[in-house]
Amino acid sequence: VTHSIPACIGSMTINSKQLDNESPVSIFAVNKCYVTVQDGTFFDGSGFAALVREGYKVRSDVNITLEFRTTAVHGVLLGVSSAKVDAIGLEIVNGKVLFHVNNGAGRITATYEPRGTSNLCDGKWHKLQANKSKHRISLIIDGNLVQTDNPYIQSTSADTNNPIYVGGYPADVKQNCLMSKSSFRGCLRNLMLTKGQQAELFDFSRAFDLRGVFPHSCPGAEH
């Protein structure tokens, strides 16, 4: 077994002696247990999760779906980049969701701006779907579709080869399709990347690098 148990553990005794878990000698990637808890992964706003160590290849088509819950108006959701300019990025900037794609010829962006009294940073769950199909990109938030024109119709493939960074990224890593450096604070769940018929659901407890991220456990209310 190479990854931790997604659970709360309390009142542990060894040889009838109760262990003091309030003041451990050392601690790593352990969070407090919440009275009310929801499915999802909690991001505390300080770090990121890194998935697919060998690099994720977006190429011509990808469909990203996830659900998020936050009260912060800024935060990185997801980025996959390359050593060149090719990249994709999903982020929340000033309460709007932006989906950026660069197939090598230039960055294009689909922007979802909440209308009227609707607010994406209200601490409630919102469904996001970001789709790249060759040079076309679209964004669907809670069933509302945004599409954008792409003048670079000859350029269709985002030749990425870096890991998928979720909720933020390390300071020494370049992200060509993200403007924000703010790590996401809130909860994410059901992250899935689909290429054709191949759908991959990502389990954050299996990330190769986790900083400030607590898999499988979301506080019932914002702390």
Explain what the structure shows:
- The chain has a single domain, classed as Sandwich (Jelly Rolls).
- With 223 residues, the protein is an all-beta fold.
- The mean pLDDT is 92.
- Strands 4, 5, 6, 7, 8, 9, 10, 11, 12, 13, 14, 15 and 16 form a 13-stranded antiparallel sheet that branches. A two-stranded antiparallel ribbon has the order 1-2.
- The chain contains no helices and 17 strands.
- This is Laminin subunit alpha-1.
- InterPro entries: ConA-like_dom_sf (IPR013320), Laminin_G (IPR001791), Neurexin-related_CASP (IPR050372).
Task: Detail the topology: elements first, then pairings.
Layout: E1 13-14, E2 17-18, E3 37-38, E4 41-51, E5 61-69, E6 75-80, E7 87-93, E8 96-102, E9 107-112, E10 126-133, E11 136-141, E12 144-148, E13 164-166, E14 185-195, E15 198-201, E16 209-214, E17 218-219
Short description:
The protein is an all-beta fold and 223 residues long. The protein has strands spanning 13-14, 17-18, 37-38, 41-51, 61-69, 75-80, 87-93, 96-102, 107-112, 126-133, 136-141, 144-148, 164-166, 185-195, 198-201, 209-214, 218-219. The radius of gyration is 19 Å and the shape is globular.
